[in-house]
Amino acid sequence: MPIRKLTNGEKLFLQDVFGRTTLPYDDLEIARNDKEYGGRNNSITFAVVPHMAPTIWVLDYSVRAVSDDDKWVFIHEMGHVWNWYHGGSNMRSAIWTGFKMWVTGNSYEDAYKYDLSESTNLRSYNIE
After folding, report:
1. What is the residue extent of each domain of the chain?
2. φ and ψ at 74, to 5 degrees?
3. Which of these, 42, 47, 40, 50, lies nearest to 14 by C-alpha position?
């Protein structure tokens, strides 16, 4: 499983989203999800290491050639890293989201459907 440190471009990219001092950018790593946890197209973050889907794995998510969709997934997974560093639990969030989807009869994928025009209240969105 390839694992690497963040590139300088990725660090700058992430600092625009999460701020300059909220994460230890020089210590962070990113891995490829070669074991395909959740499926071949799934990216998942365990604690502080995002495991990016093999189908979108690149050596630098900050470069222009990377699609906006793939950059969004990178930012999404790094959001889990930020959450972990600020007291959150990725596993607890995944279990809660799965339970909520089961109770409502929705699929887990429904947790990822957002329409920002439907609500101005951030609390209406789950951690996913």
Report:
1. 3-87, 91-124
2. -60, -50
3. 50
